[in-house]
Structure prediction request, 699 residues.
Amino acid sequence: MQTMHDIPKNNNIDKDQVTPDLPSASPDTRGCIFRGSEVFVIFLIFFAVVLALQIEGFVSPMIYDSVGWIEGRSYVFEKGPLAVAGIMPQRPLFMLSLYFNYLFHGMDPAYFRVFNALILAGTGVALMVMLNMIMALLPTRISWAAGEERLIIFLIGLLYIVHPLQIFDVLYIWQRETLMACLFYFSALAVYAAGRGGSIRNPATAYSLTVILFFLGLLSKETVITLPLTIVLMEFVFFRAPMKKFVKRAVAIWIIALIPFVLYLFLSYYLHGPDSTSAKPFERLSLAFQESGIGPLNVILTEPRVWLLYMASIVVPSVSNLQLVRAMEVSASLIDPPSTLFACLTVAGLIALAFTMRSREPLVCFGLLFFCVVLLPESLLLPQYLFFGYRAILPMAGLMFILARIMNMVSAVLRRKLPLTSAKAALAAAMCGVVAYLGMMTCSMASRWGPLWIWEHSLTALPAYSPGVETSPYLDILMNYSIQLTKSGDYGRVVEVLQRASEVAKAAQPPKRMRVLLNLGNALAITGNRQEAIERFKEAIQVDPRWAPPYNTLGGWLQEFGDLPGALENFRTAVRLDPSLAQAHYRLGRALLLIGDSDNAILSLQKALELEPNYPEASAHLGMAMWNLNRVNEAVHYLETAVSVFPNHVELHNILAKAYSKLGMVQQAEQHFKRVLEIEPGYQDARRNLQLLSPSQSK
Prediction:
């Protein structure tokens, strides 16, 4: 055994050897503490747990962005993978994963959610490996009992996947992008830590794989852009390199990160096309501030309050604080609202605490800094929506680092008082109790998951509206809730909610204000308040007289109310203002057909079908117009298209039967006359025409 006297003296030792570019104590280079087969079994366990907890919500309809950008864009999915990637060109890998779902199961939301559950299980495993690799960088003075590290890491991975926040990225299908971002983020950090700590023998391989995972993460969701900064923080927290060497490595990390970032920008611009739902990356950031009407300083002052809400939803989750979207009161100053000062001081204090704990508790330091860093992009760059519940899912991993250290400390206390086996059992029992509680909450929320519950739940958290409250999310909640009430037939409540929305919309951007007024007008018309409905439609027109939709909607209701001249005037205005509005062309053609102007009706209906080829209502009326003008062959073509979509439409079958009869195609005529009588046995015109078919013809 070597003593102090045995150590050779060397006055020429390089100073860098005193503080080497390694962790402050020897790193643990054992590699992953889970074997490959164990990792696979854990993945299957996690997948089964996610299914068991959330499966009741799998069959519920799509909501929010999932409706508009997946279900509502089904026609784009029919065009192929490149067209689908172009829907959201900033996130092409995520979009291609949705296309993969579509290829096998169409637009069935249940299968989208099964795939999300698989990704969540993989993300839980990636979190475990990341914890393992980063904890291997800890100083050796942090002790682990036999099997304790494996137990702690597994329980943390299990807690992560059962947390009720995860319903937002499994059941809310669009947030698969968040799941994929987490998967690649955790995997990249795990690989980098393994290469840096020696678990992967060839560092160049580890760093190359980190770059690839970073690129894949960017293609899933832009929030992964913080990964280079997180890696720099890892260097700062876990390694004791001299400042010069640290700066050199940090600069190298950022330069290397530029390569995948530039490729990502090029690809997102290349994929941007006519089906894209948003502006190009930098244009989108500019539009976000314009639409929000919130200044950068107000965003900075408000976000600490939002961050504390995220932290609360992670640490002390409850049904009331787990909201998909909130309308935040924007902070005008440090004392308006008063909670701003407290929140700013708390966040600043946590960041300061992290830096002071760098030497004593590096895992806690890194966890706190991780939480803050990964929140930065969405917090500061998308100000029109300051709070979304799913934004807490990636930063939750930072608190998992802190939890790992707390569990290690608790275990050390238990080992001093209990035998090792009993200490591990007590720790496991306590954690399993927490996991069970969170799992029950997740299961309960999943069983209620559905569009009506989600928006009703969000409505309960809305503050009283004032000029200081965010407008966009406030209106989103009210509008989406009114849509679900409409589907349930509760029109009285719809009018009440939309009247509230119309007051809020006075401070909104013109497009949103117009949509609120149109929806309110529709609800009033359905409930019989015709005059008030017309007033709301005219108010929508006044928002911007150059927009076609209000004229189109007003024309539709005027026709319903019997004012055909007024309807025609509004339809003509709509198509003049927006010649690409297929519905306005269709409605104009339908109205012209009613006044007997079949020639012009055909022109309008053909234009509608040119703009929107899959428009069965336009095909039906175009077939009727062709029949009126004795263009029988063309009538048959369009009517056949229409009856394939509307198989129980009596009038369509009757006209189609007459057309076939006129062409001498008696068998087809007889088939459609019989179909009319199956649907409506008392339809005398069809019965009479069927009897007129001669026996010789019908053979």
User: Anything to note?
Assistant: Confidence is low (pLDDT under 50) at residues 1-29. Residues 14 and 20 are 10 Å apart (CA to CA). The chain has 34 helices and no strands.
